[in-house]
Design a protein that fits this description.
Low-confidence stretches of chain B: 1-6
CATH class of one domain in chain C: Mainly Alpha
Oligomer: heterotrimer
Radius of gyration of chain C: 24 Å
Distance between the termini of chain C: 36 Å
Shape of chain B: globular
Helix content of chain C: 55-70%
Number of helices of chain C: 10
Number of helices of chain B: 13
Order of helices and strands of chain B: EEEHEEHEHHHHHEHEHEEHHHEEH
CATH architecture of one domain in chain C: Orthogonal Bundle
Mean pLDDT of chain C: 82
Strand content of chain C: under 5%
Structural class of chain B: alpha/beta
Strand content of chain B: 15-25%
Radius of gyration of chain B: 21 Å
Structural class of chain C: mainly alpha
Distance between the termini of chain B: 25 Å
Largest sheet of chain B: 8 strands, mixed
Number of strands of chain C: 0
CATH superfamily of one domain in chain C: MetI-like
Helix content of chain B: 25-40%
Shape of chain C: elongated
Order of helices and strands of chain C: HHHHHHHHHH
Low-confidence stretches of chain C: 1-17
Chain lengths: 336, 336, 288
Amino acid sequence: MSAQVMLEATGVEVGFPVGSSLGARLRHQQHVLHAVDGVDLTVRKGEALALVGESGSGKSTLARAIAGIQRTSRGQITLDGRVLPARRPSAERRKIQMVFQDPYSSLNPRLTVGGILRELLRAHHVVPRGEVDSHARQLLRMVGLDEDAMHALPRQFSGGQRQRVAIARAIALRPELLVADEPVSALDVSVQATILNLLQELRGELGLTLLFISHNLAVVRHLCDRVAVMYMGRIIEVAPTEELFRDPRHPYTAGLLAAIPRMTARDEGEAPAVRGDPPSPLRLPTGCRFRSRCPMAQPVCAERDPQLAPPGPGSEHSAACHFAWAAQAANAAETG
Amino acid sequence: MSGPASGRAQLEVSDLRVQIAGRHGVVHPVDGVSLEIAPGEATGLVGESGSGKSMTLRSILGLLPPEATVTSGKVVFDDTDLTRLPRSRLNKVRGAKIAMIFQEPMSALNPVMRVGNQIAEGPLIHLGMSRAQAARRAIELMQRVGIPDPERRFRAFPHEFSGGMRQRVMIAMALSCDPELILCDEPTTALDVTIQDQILRLLARLCRESGTSLMFVTHDLPVVAQVCHQVAVMYAGRIVERGTVSQVFSRPLHPYTLGLLRSAPDVDRPGQSLVPIGGSPPSLASPPAGCRFHPRCKFAEEDCKVSDPPLRLLDASRATACLHYERCLDEIGADT
Amino acid sequence: MSTLSVAPAATPVRSRRGRWYRQPTLMAGLALLAVIAGMCFAAPLLTSFNPDTQNLQEPLASIGQYGHLLGTDQEGRDTWARLLFGGQVDLRVALLAVIFPFIIGTILGSLAGYFGSWVDAVIMRVIDIVVAFPFFVLVIALVFVLGSGEKSIYIAITAVGWVSYARITRGEITVAKRQEYVLAAQSGGLSSPRIIGRHLLPNVITQSIVYAMSDIVQNIVAIVTLSYLGLGIQPPTPDWGTMIANGQNFLTTQWQLTTIPGLAVVITGLALSLTGDGLADLLRPGSS
């Protein structure tokens, strides 16, 4: 896996206006919801990068912005060195494709599977006209579906099968980057494994780069090389997977890891990993946005908003906490 | 975790069968389920979608949809068969002796009724408290479940609460009449990991403190490990394995349980490859002959195709419905 | 190549959708429509009288008198013949008068719903203006200005009627465009016309079609009303509205002159309603 940069997001912000500005002012709230609030992210060629967070973290919005189906309010996204314009031309769109979470709404119910694939293949002239059908069949084989599927409608398939069709659609245009937004969350446990294995295989066979959005850290640890953790619209930690799990440097990451239910029972009487509820995104605390739930919050946390930073140049691990690199190995001992 | 307090079962489900008459014929989503819950014990009921776990739970309190009926079997609680009780008497049990917590707090709470009043309703009706007494009790309960500022929040409406807080409200409602048993239908599935952690710990603590029994339905195996002492695994309307959590999860005695364990990524064992369970769940309208799992089972032998094995007790707490359960032991041996 | 278990071949689900002929409401409606339309368009076979021929020897004949099945009107024209030939006119005009608003309304509604922003704002303002006037007031005013006759009816109804289709389509598309399969089509680089035409419309058009059924009924009433007021179909062409208007003076003696055409309107309306309901049930996606 080379360290070559494929996609770079700089200063990306995505805001949604909420209600009226007057109403917001009366309630002492923001009137724009910053779902993504200043994100810098690098995706390297060939890697599987996980984007992890809970609801309200902005991970799905960021994923859609990268995939080009959500307009950004600020910032830019470059692919292979070229800045992507707000309205992407067809040729650029091909390179980044997306798989969605809900297998029941991500396929047009009125088109057959074959129709869905053929349409894309023809629109982009992926293969010569005569070969469109056979190529579509080949795509289905690659995702483990029978050729008969060509003539079937989506509603004739199970959730897992539909996700396979969605994956076939996503790879039909031979993209460089596959953005998968919680692709297995809506599936049964035994089916999840099939789809995860499929993604793993396709990565190897097609040399795909994968941006994998999930809230399930077990899946992430299994599948991905690097992890970026998001909280309230910002990336608060990035590290290679094993290092993140072994030695999390942001208190939220540590809490998230401790909160994962394990197969062996916990000790009784331990305090919850992360206490309280997330703040309203329209009323963020000053300084660090995690400080209202942080076990080690200090006065400086209310004054200055920590930036995502590594301990030193050349390090693969960054965290956005004033005490990330001063924190003791206590963090590591708890979660390892 | 501490085990059951005494030998006498608090709830005993015997050979429960539920039928739904649909346009494709008669279907048995619950097809001969037997289990026991001892006082003070937390039992998990796990399965994937279509296993019948939710329907089993609902039939205990008679909360089945109109097209579903209990055709045979008993649910014995406090020496009475709940399936035979007339509605008026069943209502005295519901809420008072047996309470239920649902998956989606927003739809399980009345959106136009103040939260405090909803919690107070149970004591008002079942315990005959005055309004003032019931309100005081509601505030106590809100405190117990960790809702901050309960006197003020009493008058709030559900939509003013976050998902985790609403779930706490539901738990407070469930506890309001000091029930002996609480039924939980996927109570944390819709919650974020960190909030799930809080709620699971809360449930475990409350049950320890008050000696209430729990029946916890979920598809998420690690969640069961966090809260329950006992677990029963369901497949195609039947229980296929039963035992303590540590027994079933570390030494499963049914190929389906083994398959489930191997197909889900374990956050503590990242290198393990995922082995999906082949095939797909059987149609409940025409289940396979013999053992219902045999078409997907890699240990299936000739007798599995012919005879439908019942759940057999191996010792006091362990039971399995597999004729060749020793094969599972061999597999585990090979793994570790 | 793959170690995956290949998924079982998809088993086609037997759904209600394919069996349109099993829908009782739809079949009843279509059958009734077929009978009505059949009778009207087979008029020459069902009556030997000419609807326009006046016969001042036999004015206001009673039922069965002089061989007139339903009697005659004050100018001696056979009522039965007028009923059948009038039905041809009314059905044809009502159907055609639905097609133009349907097409225009659907297109404008799609554009408004899909593109939003100024396109939507402009179209919505125009809709607001049209909707501010009661339907009949506007139609009658337009026909008055354009002069009576069939062509004016088409123009007037189209100018006013497209609004409903536009709103329905706009509403449906505003919601449907957030569906993930639309996002997938967008990220697949498909053009907007293609996405609207191939992905969105087939999924949202059913509402408009069902509405069109009741719109035909409304058009029949509109045409009948216009003719009743003397603004619609001009004499001597027969039509149910004119018949109702002309016959009302003779309600006490020859009640059939007004009542029978009125009944025809009601029954046709019923047939169209049933068809619309049946279609709605049939086209509702995916329920099996």
